[in-house]
Specification:
The protein is an alpha+beta fold and 454 residues long. 63% of the residues lie in helices and 7% in strands. Helix 10 (342-361) links the parallel strand 1 and strand 2. The longest helix is centred in the middle third of the chain and has 55 residues, at 217-271. It is elongated, with a radius of gyration of 36 Å.
Amino acid sequence: MKTMTLDPQALRSALRPGASRLLSAPYSAGTWRAYGYLWCMLLLGPFALFYTLATVAVTVGAAVTVVGLFVAGGLVVGGRWWGATYRRLAADLLGTHVAAPVPGRRREGFWPRLGGALGDTAGWRALLFMIAALPVTLLGFIVSTACLVLGFGGVTYWTWFWSLPPELAMDSSWHNPAGLALVALGGLVVLVLWPSAQSGFVALLTLLTRVLLGPTAASLRVAELERSRAGTVQDADARLRRIERDLHDGTQARLVAVGMQLGEAREQLVAGETDTLGELLEVAHASTKDALAELRELARGIHPPALDSGLAVALETLAARAPLPVTADIDPAVEAGGRLAPAIESIVYFSIAELVTNAAKHAHASRVHVRVEGGSGVLHIQVRDDGSGGATVVAPDGSGLRSGLAGLAERVGSVDGTFDLSSPVGGPTVVTMTLPAVRAGTAGAHRTGTGRPA
């Protein structure tokens, strides 16, 4: 059997950083800031407790009135201010930054406004924090202060023990060099362990701050869905405006020209002048064909006819018409359970179409590979190109302008999908999307967003 030996030098090297941190903890600024945090929490505690009890009392007492309920609702909403105060305190003294809850939605009408105030979740959670934090703060402050006082008292006991009355001083047998040194050593140990004892209570208060004063996962999800829905509506509105502009500037102008040419041909036919009649009809015929081609292109942008035959056929058609070589690998399981919901098919089709266009126009790629897989009620789409890379998702800047990739991310998010971009400079660019595989005719298909590109 092979024996193991411990290298004393290696052991000392491994233990030295931890021991150094332990010994220096009582002198670190973070330890004293945490102690100051407990002080501030203790000072706020009685006022917070009074506010919480007053809110509950007013709410219960005003249950039989209407005007009083508005006062109670104001107190509940005021809990948000207390939550902001505690979050700011944690950020300034502990360096713990907790995001604010999602702002309350302004409601119109007497009863909806009253219900929104009384049912303000963030306000009630802040009140619950003030109740839960008080015993933790009180116990933590007592333990921390006791450790601090005992530690300093033990270390310095040899300097002031003589001033104590006999009934308060330690047994005189300790009043010798060995005894005083042992007391000082015990005080030093308590001082060294003081930050660790204190940190447990501070960590618990930090956890309460994150859990009760931060936004809930549900509220963040609702806010994200509302934002993505708003982006989808903006995309749809921009698409309608673009179609209107294309019809006005292109197809309508061509049809007006056709009408004028046919009118001129009719006048020549009535007058018996047939010299240029054939030329006019030829021009009108060519303009009509151009207008029909433009209308077909517009219709394809609204709803590609290939989607009527299913997503697989549509993507194969898209690959065949792409301005660069596109390999489309479609898993048969995607449509094995039946056709996908039209909104899901549109999002997949137009997202891939836009990514292929970006690869050809901006990344100058030579080829694109598209992979669509299905399984467990989820679609996995990966679009990879060998272009120059460096693509980024530009978030909205408040002007209403977004990058094409940001629009794609919002479109995918509008149906609870995910969008991931990997595009290092020099390539390759890989976009991975997951969408729910909602089948046509299910209830979820009616709640999905539009998939039309902006």
